[in-house]
Amino acid sequence: MFTMLKLIAVLVLAGAIPSYSQQNNYITTGFGSPVSYKDASLTVGRRGPLLMEDTEFIDEMAHFDRERIPERVVHAKGGGAFGYFNVTNDITRYCAAALFSQVGKRTKIAVRFSTIGGERGSADTRRDPRGFAIKFYTEEGNWDLVGNTVPVFFIRDPILFPSFIHTQKRHPATFLHNADMQWDAITLRPESTHMVLYVFSDRGTPDGFRYMHGYGISTFKLVNATGHHVFCKFTYMTNQGLRNLTRARAQQLEGSDPDYAIRDLYQAIRSGNYPSWTLYIQVMTEEQVAQSSFNPFDDTKLWPEDRYPFIEVGRLTLNENPTNYFQQIEQIAMSPSRMVPGIKPSPDKILQGRLFAYPDTQRYRLGPNFLQIPVNCPLQDVHNYQRDGPMSYSNQGDSPVYHPNSVDSLNVSQRATQLSPPYSVSGDVYKYDSGNTEDNFAQPRDFYENRLDEAARINLVDNLAEAISAASAPLQRRALNLFGNVSADLRSRLQSRITSQ
Ligand code: HEM
C-alpha cells in the first residue's frame, strides 16, 4: 500500500499520470465532485444574499484563504529545475557514497537557485550572494548539497546568523532596508570582511543563475569503504563561464525585469540549451588539518587551491523545467543535514548550526510530514517508526510502530554502520568568540590584490562606496577602518569616493 502510494506520487511528480480533472474533462470541487456552475455563487434572488449551502463557493474560497505558506526565512525568492548528475572521475578512495561508486553513473537531481535577503517577490538581480542547492535522489536516500555562489560565509559561529540576517532584512520601525544596521553589524564582526568583498564585487550581481559557480562552503567528512576519512569542501563550477552584471545593469533590471534570472533559466531549458556545472572536491587529511595555518572548519576561509587542489567528480546537468512551481520548487526542502552513507558532518560550527536550522524551519514552513511531499521523497521506501501528524500521506500501513520489535525483520544497514566509525573529540567546554582572535584579513587581502584585476577592483570600490555612503558618518568611518585592514589602497580609494565621513 505504502509503496503503491509512493509510486503514484513519483509518477504524478514526473507527469506520467494525469490528474483526475484532466481524465474527466470537467471542473470539480476539491473533493472531486463535478461543479454545477463556476461563474456565479448561489444567492436568494438576483441581488443576494449568499446561501451557506453553496458548498462549491465555500470549497473554493476556504482553500484560497489558505493558499500562502510562510516564505523561507532566508532565500525566499528562487527558481529551480531538474536534471542529472554523471560521475566522470573515480573518488571511491575518498568516499564510499553509492552515487559516486562508478564512473558513468547517473543520479537524478533537483536544483534550487535563490537570492538570500529578499522577500519572495523581490528582484532577482539585487546585490546578494545567491543560493545554489542540489538534491541528489540516490539509491541510499536523498543527499542535499546546499551551497552559495561565493566560496565563504559572513560568520563563523551560527549563533550570529539570526542577527546578521535581521540587518539584511527590514528595519523594525520603518520597514525599510537600513544601511546603518548593515554597516554596524559588518564592522562589529570583522570576520564578515571576506564575504563582503565578494558580494560587493560584481560576483554579487550574477547574470542570471546559469553563469555562477556554486560552493558548499561548509566542510564535510568523506568516509571510504575501509572507514578511513578525509575532510572535504565541494565546489561546482559553471560550464557556461562566469558572467556578472554591472551595478547599473542590475539596478535597471530590478525595475524592468524583476524575474530576470528565473525567466532566463526556464527559457534556456525549454529551448534545449541545458546548463551544466562540473563538481569538484578539495580534501584535507587529519594530518593536514593539524598542520594547517588556518582553521579548516572556519567558513569565512577558503582552502587555497594550490595547497588543496580541485579533484573532479562529475557533471551536473539541468534538462527539465518544473511543471508546477509551488509543488516542486516552493515546497522543495533542502538541508545539509540530509546526508547519505559515506558523507558525514565535520566539526565546522556553521555546519553544526545548520544541521538544526533547516529541518526545524521546514517542519514549520511545510509541516512535520514535509518529507512525504513528492519532491522531497526519497526514491526508495522509508522504513521507520514515525507516524501520523498533519497531512500524513505515507503512513507506512500496518507495519509496527515501535522499535525494537519482534514483528518486522528490519535491521540497521551494516554498510551505514561501517561508514559511521567512532571518532574522538576533546576540549574545554566554553563559549569561544573568535571574532577578533583569528586572522580576518589575510584572505580578503589576497582577494583584493590577487584575485581581482584592475577593472574588477574599480567596480568593487564603486559598489562599496555607493553602499557605505548610505550609512551615517560614524559608520562610514568604521567601514573605512575595516577595509583599511584589508589594504591601504582600498581604504584610500574608498575615502576619496565617500564624501560625508
Ligand atoms: C548559521 C548559518 C546558517 C543558518 C542558520 C542557515 C539557515 C537557513 C534556513 C533556516 C534556511 C531556510 C530553509 C527552508 O526554509 O527550507 C536556509 C536556506 C538556505 N541556506 Fe542557509 N543557513 C546558514 C548558512 C548557510 C550557508 C553557509 C550556506 C551556503 C553554503 C547556506 C545556503 C542556503 C541555501 C542555498 C538555502 C536555500 C535552500 C533552498 O533553495 O531551498 N546557508 N538557510
Descriptive labels:
signal, disordered N terminus, binds protoporphyrin IX containing FE, EC 1.11.1.6, Catalase, 501 residues, Catalase HpII,  Chain A, domain 1, 3 domains, Catalase_haem_BS, catalase activity, 16 helices, alpha+beta
Distance between the termini: 69 Å
Count the strands? 10
> Unreliable segments (pLDDT under 50, ≥5 consecutive)?
1-5, 7-18
What is the annotated CATH architecture of the largest domain?
Answer: Beta Barrel
CATH superfamily assignment of the largest domain? Catalase core domain
| Distinct small-molecule ligands in the complex | protoporphyrin IX containing FE
Tally of separate helices: 16
The radius of gyration over CA amounts to: 25 Å
Mean pLDDT: 95
Largest sheet: 10 strands, antiparallel
Account of the protein in words:
A hairpin with a 5-residue loop joins strand 6 (220-223) and strand 7 (229-238). The model is unreliable at 1-5 and 7-18 (pLDDT under 50). The protein has 16 helices and ten strands. The N and C termini lie far apart (69 Å). It has helices at 2-13, 20-24, 55-64, 161-168, 179-188, 193-200, 247-256, 260-270, 286-291, 325-330, 349-365, 414-418, 442-451, 454-469, 473-484, 488-497; strands at residues 78-87, 106-115, 130-138, 141-148, 214-215, 220-223, 229-238, 276-284, 311-320, 343-345. Helix 6 runs parallel beside helix 13 (442-451). Strands 1, 2, 3, 4, 5, 6, 7, 8, 9 and 10 form a ten-stranded antiparallel beta sheet that branches. It is globular, with a radius of gyration of 25 Å. The protein is of the alpha+beta class and 501 residues long. It has three domains: 1-36, no CATH class; 78-376, Catalase core domain (Catalase HpII,  Chain A, domain 1, Beta Barrel); 442-497, no CATH class. Bound molecules: protoporphyrin IX containing FE. Protoporphyrin IX containing FE (HEM) is lined by residues 72-75, 78, 112, 114, 131, 133, 146-148, 153, 158, 161, 216-218, 299, 332-334, 350, 353-354, 357-358, 361-362, 365. One of its GO terms (cellular component) is mitochondrion. Heme binds at residue 358. Residues 28-411 form the Catalase core domain. It comes from Agrilus planipennis. It catalyses: 2 H2O2 = O2 + 2 H2O.
